[in-house]
Write a structure and sequence with these properties.
This protein is of the alpha/beta class and about 210 residues long. The chain is built from eleven helices and five strands.
Length: about 210
């Protein structure tokens, strides 16, 4: 029996989901994937990394804006005028295949990119959604992105909408809704380190890892 397991993390911007995912991977001794998935998808598909970054966690209708906007920087005329450039669904499939292949080979933490839906048939998956109080989210985004509070608030709204649109477009579930996950948690209550520890304990109990 394959003992590999996966932890799939959805997150609000500024909730610390990336840090928590990294902490879980480190403490459990497993692999961590967030932006790294773009590099792998680029290598396996032959598509430019910059192209995939423009479409990362965006629903399908943003595809052609990405194509036209990136023509000069990453695309040749042969690709640009070819009728065979990838559809949004194909790009989603490329990344989904990468996620499935990685999950088959090893235990992993995946952040975002509908990994919980992509791995819905995985027998040892734990799906987590992380939120946080708005003042904490604004403070974290101000610090990480070097923005004013007003601009950080606008950025949070924009990114949360983008993530929700992407998730709802490609899955049969609702982004951030409790019914879509095994555990939803507010990282402001315990802080990043204690939230990481709490989720680790939850994962270990759900997957019976404590007796391994």
């Amino acid at each position: 029996m394959n003992e590999n397991f996966v932890i799939n993390i959805g997150r609000q911007l500024g909730s610390g989901g990336h840090l928590i995912g990294q902490g879980l991977a480190r403490e459990l001794g497993i692999s961590f994937y967030d932006k790294e998935l773009i590099q792998i998808a680029s290598q396996e598909s032959g598509l430019a990394k910059e192209f995939l970054e423009q479409l990362d966690e965006k629903k399908g209708q943003g595809l052609f804006r990405g194509i036209f906007g990136l023509r000069n920087s990453v695309m040749t005329d042969e690709f640009y005028f070819n009728d065979n450039y990838p559809s949004s669904e194909m790009l989603f499939k490329i990344q989904s295949d990468v996620i499935r292949n990685l999950a088959e080979k090893q235990s992993c933490v995946f952040v975002g990119r509908c990994a919980d839906y992509v791995l819905k048939d995985h027998p040892r998956a734990v799906n987590i959604f992380i939120t946080a109080d708005l003042p904490d989210r604004i403070a974290r985004v101000c610090r990480d992105q070097h923005l004013t509070e007003e601009k950080a608030m606008d950025y949070i709204k924009k990114m949360d909408k983008k993530r929700a649109d992407y998730y709802n477009y490609y899955t049969e579930k609702q982004w951030g809704a409790a019914a879509s996950y095994h555990l939803c948690i507010n990282s402001s209550v315990l802080g990043i380190e204690e939230t990481t520890a709490y989720i680790r304990e939850f994962v270990e109990k759900k997957l019976n890892l404590t007796n391994k």
